[in-house]
């Protein structure tokens, strides 16, 4: 969604500053896993607002439906059944883009302007600039972006950047019947999370906490978890996510260095020619052969 | 065109055509690949009709190049076996670079440097092919850790190989009378006697 333009914090494959005069508050969506009832109203609201309908799939025997994120399903509920202290717990997590402060997708993307991070923290894909290489998938620590089989563009949750731009909360937050999805400034959301965590602790969840992983600089979608010490219980939410060192190596300082090295080889060749001169066939040898021929 | 019937045949028409297929596909691969490699090169996607076309075409060009290189590899493999003379030549490569190659050890069809280039390019080609397939999201879906590894290998190998090819092309331009071997396949006897004397003796019997 190319709505805002003066409040861009980062732009993929761009080495000069993006337009950034307008300052906006950092926003966040808080998903309180402990009050989610798994009704999927958010999934439906996401389809509705973005006006995208995924193909109707098949029931795989569990509640997860669709079974995974797709180019047309930008958020899915993931249901985990775990046993804690002899009791069954049904842990339900709304999965989707985390809107990382340090987004691996944007770092990896080779197409200028295909991925934008706004000053408010939202990481948005601009499909008109996308070339469909899938580097964003390679860069993302949360396995979020999906390439459409129909148009070969990458898609994921936009945090309703179009709604947020005009002061509205994301569709999922608006529709959630239990208030498990909250939206506001990142500060407000952290304060709200503190209250929820206090409540959970008073009810015996002494490891309750906020999921705002610092390995990616914090996220603009955060979770309140009853078991914040073991996020992987929630269908594999990564414990300490960060941009893979391989991705940093691939996209880091080595690249400009390689550019300089290639330029040095090209210029080195030129100056070798200019300083040493061409390696000509010796006149002596040519004359010698001519003499042989004449005999 | 035969300028002088006494010129020596260095490459057959098939060998030259094969080399040009590899060369053209390599240049197109390097241009499109560099465009993904660093934003400084992004405008080069326009040569392919835009970023999407560059992304689509690059891997297919890669397959074309890999197959045609395989054919080159088998044609020239046995001519590129390293010998003790090559090692001696290599240890004195600095004289060659300085342009004082008159009393370097006698070389066969290829000198030590060319042989090293041959094997280095073969290794790069293998690494690029394997890592390139790992990156090919349109048709494959390898585990993400493997793809990340492939991305590092592909980008690093590509940079090395582009540098090697620049040296390869420069050497051909620098050593006068060489490029024609790739245009129409012949070199002069003086060229052969100066640069590849053992080969010269072998083909002329002198
Ligand atoms: C041998 C077969 C090859 C295959 C199958 C292959 C495949 C790929 C693929 C799939 C990509 C990702 C972009 C895309 O989807 O188009 C890529 C990127 C790239 N390729 Fe290749 N390629 C091959 C050979 C080469 C060669 C010979 C070069 C260089 C001379 C090269 C240079 C690059 C570069 C520089 C990138 C960008 C890497 C980056 O993003 O850092 N490739 N290649
Ligand atoms: S979760 Fe993945 S797709 Fe979303 S901002 Fe972070 S790196 Fe990008
Ligand atoms: S597929 Fe992902 S990484 Fe590639 S251009 Fe599109 S948004 Fe960027």
Automatic annotation (TrEMBL), chain A:
<dbReference type="InterPro" id="IPR051555">
    <property type="entry name" value="FDH_Electron_Transfer_Unit"/>
</dbReference>
<keyword id="KW-0813">Transport</keyword>
<feature type="binding site">
    <location>
        <position position="130"/>
    </location>
    <ligand>
        <name>[4Fe-4S] cluster 4</name>
    </ligand>
</feature>
<keyword id="KW-0479">Metal-binding</keyword>
<feature type="binding site">
    <location>
        <position position="36"/>
    </location>
    <ligand>
        <name>[4Fe-4S] cluster 1</name>
    </ligand>
</feature>
<keyword id="KW-0004">4Fe-4S</keyword>
<dbReference type="InterPro" id="IPR017900">
    <property type="entry name" value="4Fe4S_Fe_S_CS"/>
</dbReference>
<dbReference type="Pfam" id="PF13247">
    <property type="entry name" value="Fer4_11"/>
</dbReference>
<dbReference type="InterPro" id="IPR006470">
    <property type="entry name" value="Formate_DH_bsu_Proteobacteria"/>
</dbReference>
<feature type="binding site">
    <location>
        <position position="140"/>
    </location>
    <ligand>
        <name>[4Fe-4S] cluster 3</name>
    </ligand>
</feature>
<feature type="binding site">
    <location>
        <position position="136"/>
    </location>
    <ligand>
        <name>[4Fe-4S] cluster 4</name>
    </ligand>
</feature>
<dbReference type="GO" id="GO:0045333">
    <property type="term" value="P:cellular respiration"/>
</dbReference>
<feature type="binding site">
    <location>
        <position position="109"/>
    </location>
    <ligand>
        <name>[4Fe-4S] cluster 4</name>
    </ligand>
</feature>
<keyword id="KW-0677">Repeat</keyword>
<feature type="binding site">
    <location>
        <position position="105"/>
    </location>
    <ligand>
        <name>[4Fe-4S] cluster 3</name>
    </ligand>
</feature>
<feature type="binding site">
    <location>
        <position position="97"/>
    </location>
    <ligand>
        <name>[4Fe-4S] cluster 3</name>
    </ligand>
</feature>
<dbReference type="InterPro" id="IPR017896">
    <property type="entry name" value="4Fe4S_Fe-S-bd"/>
</dbReference>
<protein>
    <submittedName>
        <fullName>Formate dehydrogenase (Quinone-dependent) iron-sulfur subunit</fullName>
    </submittedName>
</protein>
<feature type="binding site">
    <location>
        <position position="157"/>
    </location>
    <ligand>
        <name>[4Fe-4S] cluster 2</name>
    </ligand>
</feature>
<feature type="region of interest" description="Disordered">
    <location>
        <begin position="1"/>
        <end position="20"/>
    </location>
</feature>
<keyword id="KW-1003">Cell membrane</keyword>
<feature type="domain" description="4Fe-4S ferredoxin-type">
    <location>
        <begin position="88"/>
        <end position="120"/>
    </location>
</feature>
Automatic annotation (TrEMBL), chain B:
<feature type="transmembrane region" description="Helical">
    <location>
        <begin position="118"/>
        <end position="139"/>
    </location>
</feature>
<feature type="transmembrane region" description="Helical">
    <location>
        <begin position="20"/>
        <end position="41"/>
    </location>
</feature>
<keyword id="KW-0813">Transport</keyword>
<feature type="transmembrane region" description="Helical">
    <location>
        <begin position="53"/>
        <end position="74"/>
    </location>
</feature>
<dbReference type="GO" id="GO:0009061">
    <property type="term" value="P:anaerobic respiration"/>
</dbReference>
<keyword id="KW-1003">Cell membrane</keyword>
<dbReference type="GO" id="GO:0009055">
    <property type="term" value="F:electron transfer activity"/>
</dbReference>
<dbReference type="GO" id="GO:0015944">
    <property type="term" value="P:formate oxidation"/>
</dbReference>
<keyword id="KW-1133">Transmembrane helix</keyword>
<dbReference type="InterPro" id="IPR011577">
    <property type="entry name" value="Cyt_b561_bac/Ni-Hgenase"/>
</dbReference>
<keyword id="KW-0349">Heme</keyword>
<dbReference type="InterPro" id="IPR006471">
    <property type="entry name" value="Formate_DH_gsu"/>
</dbReference>
<dbReference type="GO" id="GO:0005886">
    <property type="term" value="C:plasma membrane"/>
</dbReference>
<dbReference type="InterPro" id="IPR016174">
    <property type="entry name" value="Di-haem_cyt_TM"/>
</dbReference>
<comment type="similarity">
    <text>Belongs to the formate dehydrogenase gamma subunit family.</text>
</comment>
<dbReference type="GO" id="GO:0046872">
    <property type="term" value="F:metal ion binding"/>
</dbReference>
<dbReference type="GO" id="GO:0009326">
    <property type="term" value="C:formate dehydrogenase complex"/>
</dbReference>
<dbReference type="InterPro" id="IPR051817">
    <property type="entry name" value="FDH_cytochrome_b556_subunit"/>
</dbReference>
<dbReference type="GO" id="GO:0008863">
    <property type="term" value="F:formate dehydrogenase (NAD+) activity"/>
</dbReference>
<protein>
    <submittedName>
        <fullName>Formate dehydrogenase subunit gamma</fullName>
    </submittedName>
</protein>
<feature type="transmembrane region" description="Helical">
    <location>
        <begin position="151"/>
        <end position="175"/>
    </location>
</feature>
<keyword id="KW-0408">Iron</keyword>
């Amino acid at each position: 969604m190319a709505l805002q333009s003066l409040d861009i914090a980062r732009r993929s494959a761009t080495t000069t500053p993006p337009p950034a005069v307008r300052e906006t508050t950092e926003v966040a969506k808080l998903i309180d896993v402990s009050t989610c009832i798994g009704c999927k109203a958010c999934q439906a609201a996401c389809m509705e607002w973005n006006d995208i309908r995924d193909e109707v799939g098949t029931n795989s025997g569990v509640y997860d439906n669709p079974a995974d994120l797709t180019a047309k399903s930008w958020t899915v509920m993931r249901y985990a059944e775990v046993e804690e202290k002899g009791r069954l717990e049904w842990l339900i997590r709304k999965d989707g883009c985390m809107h990382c402060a340090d987004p691996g997708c944007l770092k990896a993307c080779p197409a200028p302007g295909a991925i934008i991070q706004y000053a408010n923290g939202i990481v948005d894909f601009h499909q008109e600039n996308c070339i469909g290489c899938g580097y964003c998938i390679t860069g993302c620590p949360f396995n979020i972006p999906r390439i459409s089989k129909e148009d070969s563009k990458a898609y994921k949750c936009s945090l309703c950047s179009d709604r947020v731009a005009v002061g509205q909360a994301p569709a999922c937050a608006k529709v959630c019947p239990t208030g498990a999805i909250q939206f506001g400034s990142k500060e407000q959301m952290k304060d709200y999370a503190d209250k929820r965590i206090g409540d959970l602790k008073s009810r015996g969840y002494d490891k309750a906490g906020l999921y705002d992983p610092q390995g990616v600089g914090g996220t603009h979608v955060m979770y309140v978890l009853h078991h914040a010490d073991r996020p992987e219980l929630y269908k594999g939410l990564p414990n300490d996510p960060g941009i893979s060192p391989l991705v940093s190596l691939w996209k880091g300082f080595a690249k400009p260095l390689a550019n300089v090295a290639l330029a040095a080889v090209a210029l080195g060749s030129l100056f070798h020619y200019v300083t040493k001169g061409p390696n000509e066939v010796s006149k002596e040898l040519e004359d010698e052969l001519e003499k042989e021929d004449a005999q | 065109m035969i300028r002088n019937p006494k010129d020596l045949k260095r490459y057959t028409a098939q060998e030259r055509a094969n080399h040009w297929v590899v060369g053209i596909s390599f240049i197109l691969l390097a241009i499109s690949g560099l465009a993904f490699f660093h934003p400084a090169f992004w405008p080069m996607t326009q040569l392919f009709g835009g970023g999407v076309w560059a992304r689509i075409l690059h891997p297919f060009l890669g397959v074309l190049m890999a197959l045609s290189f395989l054919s080159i590899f088998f044609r020239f493999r046995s001519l590129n076996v390293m010998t003790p003379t090559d090692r001696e030549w290599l240890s004195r490569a600095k004289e060659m670079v300085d342009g004082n190659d008159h009393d370097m050890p006698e070389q066969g069809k290829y000198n030590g440097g060319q042989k090293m280039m041959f094997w280095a390019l073969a290794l790069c080609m293998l690494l690029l092919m394997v890592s390139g397939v790992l990156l090919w999201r349109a048709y494959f879906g390898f585990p993400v850790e493997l793809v990340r590894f492939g991305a590092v290998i592909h980008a690093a190998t590509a940079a090395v190989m582009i540098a090697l090819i620049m040296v390869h092309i420069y050497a051909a331009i620098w050593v006068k009378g060489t490029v024609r071997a790739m245009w129409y396949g012949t070199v002069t006897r003086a060229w052969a006697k100066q640069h590849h004397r053992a080969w010269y003796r072998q083909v002329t019997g002198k």
